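Module 6 notes. Inverse folding takes a fixed backbone as the condition and produces residue identities as the prediction. Think of it as a translation problem where the source language is geometry and the target language is the twenty amino acids. Below is one complete input and output pair. Work through it position by position during the lab.
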């Protein structure tokens, strides 16, 4: 049993649905459902508080399968209601519809018994539905996606070990290149990714990006029309002339205020 936030997990398997992998190991596909007690501020009369479970990830033939699962867990008959729920993100403006189930028990202690059963980590064995057992497509799909846990863990460990070996091998190669050769030359190496040769296209794109950045910050005015550019140039020339006249007048005052002081 694993606790996923507020949800409790329960696994079940079809006892007539064993398949074999490429090595001939018999696999028993498990289906995991996630459920919690259904509680709302404004309780719906269809789902009485204290006697209803909210279930995510319902299986195929949910009404029949889940009634068997929770009857085995609680030891009492249950009522199963399959419906659709819309979930999504308001920020990303996305939504989708997912199937959910409500399990209604006749008594509150039956609900508590089902939760206690799941908390023990029990796996429920079920007889596969007729349509499920006879479907060659479903069995072919299970043969592709279901893995024996130990074999899958061994495959993952081998992949991680291979990656670590390749990384260490690359480090040793870089270290060997950094040592001086017989003539005393040392090959300069770098573990950083190279950006490639500098081209005119890259320089132009970098300059354009810098201009866009300045405009976004508001440090560079945006003139869309030619007369705006001409007006800006005239204003700049007028300002320069004014500064020049002020500087010339200041110099004349300094020259006029000079006095001969021999001592």
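Target side of the pair, the amino acids:
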């Amino acid at each position: 049993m694993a606790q996923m936030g507020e949800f409790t997990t329960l696994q079940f398997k079809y006892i007539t649905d064993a398949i074999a992998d490429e090595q001939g190991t018999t696999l028993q596909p498990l289906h995991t459902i996630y459920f919690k007690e259904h509680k709302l501020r404004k309780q719906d009369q269809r789902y009485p508080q204290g006697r209803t479970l909210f279930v995510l990830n319902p299986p195929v033939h949910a009404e029949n399968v889940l009634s068997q699962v929770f009857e085995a867990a609680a030891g009492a008959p249950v009522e199963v209601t399959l419906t659709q729920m819309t979930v999504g993100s308001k920020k990303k403006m996305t939504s989708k519809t997912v199937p959910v189930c409500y399990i209604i028990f006749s008594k509150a202690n039956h609900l508590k018994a089902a939760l206690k059963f799941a908390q023990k980590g029990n796996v429920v064995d079920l007889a596969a539905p007729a349509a499920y057992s006879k479907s060659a497509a479903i069995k072919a799909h299970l043969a592709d996606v279901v893995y024996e846990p130990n074999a899958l863990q061994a495959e993952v460990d081998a992949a991680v070990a291979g990656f670590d070996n390749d990384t260490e091998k690359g480090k040793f190669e870089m270290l060997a290149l950094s040592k001086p050769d017989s003539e005393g030359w040392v090959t300069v190496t770098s573990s950083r990714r190279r950006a490639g040769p500098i081209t005119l296209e890259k320089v132009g794109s970098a300059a354009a990006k810098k201009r866009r950045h300045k405009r976004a910050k508001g440090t560079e005015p945006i003139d869309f029309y030619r007369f705006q550019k001409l007006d800006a140039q005239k204003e700049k020339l007028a300002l320069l002339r004014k500064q020049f006249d002020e500087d010339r007048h200041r110099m004349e005052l300094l020259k006029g205020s000079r006095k001969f002081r021999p001592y």
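Reference fact for the lab report: The first strand starts at residue 3 and ends at 4.
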